[in-house]
Amino acid sequence: MQEGVEDIDRAKFLIQTKNIDPENIYEYDSLRVSELNIKSGKWSQIGEINATVTLQKIATGIGADFHVTFHVEYACMRCLCNFARDFDVTMRLDYIEGEDPYVKMENVELAAHDADRVYYHGPHIDLSVGIREAIILAQPITPICKQDCSGLCPICGANLNVKRCGCKVEKVGPFTPRSDATAK
To answer: Residue 91 and residue 127: Cα distance in Å, rounded?
Structure first.
């Protein structure tokens, strides 16, 4: 990225805390992954990202309700076929001015409300934090094309969703396809 371009792109996510009215709505259309500082993921491609953020003052700081939609293309972890999925994610974060009380501690056990807090310093909050978290947290740990994906035959490599190969698989382990997938 060219020098200065990153700062211009980032500026649209910085909101001055003194200008927050009882309810402010910010809309971001056609965002790119690079604008949100998302380095990599299990996707082969992530499409257009759209986000609506509603801000309101709360007793402890600023409440932010995020609604993020996006399209992702993956390679299935079982059969290696490409597939796509649309996401529609909502998330709530509370922006609190001050120092994160847990930042210097080791082995901290967070309460449920602690996970939804973002601490900030200065006159701005950064809405890209919430948009980025909504995208990352929505990602499946193991992307699979369908729940009953049969995967690949460990002997001949056939995609068992397409063709039953008839190979005899004797050892059963975590990577062995379902038993009915290799049977004729």
So the answer is: 12
Average pLDDT over residues 81-88: 94
Supply the pTM of this predicted model.
0.78
- Tabulate helix, strand, coil % of the chain (nearest 5): 20, 35, 45
Are 91 and 130 in contact by the 8 Å Cβ rule? The answer is yes
Provide the CA 8 distance to its chain's centre, in angstroms: 24
* H/E stretch holding 56: strand 43-58
Nearest to 121 by CA among 106, 103, 107: 103
Strand order in the sheet with 43-58: 24-31, 43-58, 61-75, 82-97, 117-120
For residue 56, which of 66, 45, 42, 70 has the smallest C-alpha distance?
66
Q: 40, exposed or middle or buried, with CB in 10 Å at 0-12, 13-18, 19+? A: exposed
Structure tokens at 60: 């402890």
Position 144 scores a pLDDT of 93
- Integer Cα distance of 37 and 132 in angstroms: 8
Q: What is the maximum span of the chain, computed from C-alpha positions, in angstroms?
A: 69
Q: Which residues are paired to 56 by β-bridges?
A: 63
Q: Which residues 6+ apart lie within 8 Å of 73 measured at CB? A: 43, 44, 45, 46, 47, 82, 83, 84
Can you tell me the distance from the alpha carbon of 94 to that of 115, in angstroms, rounded to the nearest whole number? 10
